[in-house]
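User: Show me an example of a complex going from sequences to structure tokens.

Assistant: Sure. Here are the input components:
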Amino acid sequence: NAGVMQNPRHLVRRRGQEARLRCSPMKGHSHVYWYRQLPEEGLKFMVYLQKENIIDESGMPKERFSAEFPKEGPSILRIQQVVRGDSAAYFCASSPRGDRGETQYFGPGTRLLVL
Amino acid sequence: GENVEQHPSTLSVQEGDSAVIKCTYSDSASNYFPWYKQELGKRPQLIIDIRSNVGEKKDQRIAVTLNKTAKHFSLHITETQPEDSAVYFCAASKGSNYQLIWGAGTKLIIKP
């Protein structure tokens, strides 16, 4: 059973370009969470999605950031017009049902570097 | 909203000794407290978790204790080994779980 997959593992963008980060949850999981981790810091919740629905995007900046989890295919976190401050590790996690106290399993992360 | 504080930020212990990392939370409605271990450049991995209906949980050399009255929980690692060196994060959540609020992390260094 493959774990949570993320690609690319490393992404370099110049200021103003778009970054697309992909996350494939574990088989059988229909709940995806995106987190951002700055160097030397903990993870910060960004957005929680189920298939075709955004449940909670309260941790995501209102501008330039968007997320989706289509019926088919991976969840995508999109950052438009990237700035240097977007440089971070972006982790996604998945869980089967989104139940109370359910374990979230993390992917390997995408390390975004904005030049 | 929930706030999780974690101490210390760095902990250095002699191999074989015990390590204790403490976290406090602000929201008394929080009911799920996982601990994650993150090695350099790798993903966070769940090592142990505790729910608010128990006060202590143990798994081999790792244990977690929860004091709901004081709103704090601790990670205990006994007989530390070099491979325990990593950054450890506590987290707390309530209700539907997805809002995991993370502590800032503790860098654990095991000295040979």
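The lines above are the inputs; the final block is the predicted structure for all two components together. The two ends of chain A are 37 Å apart (CA to CA).
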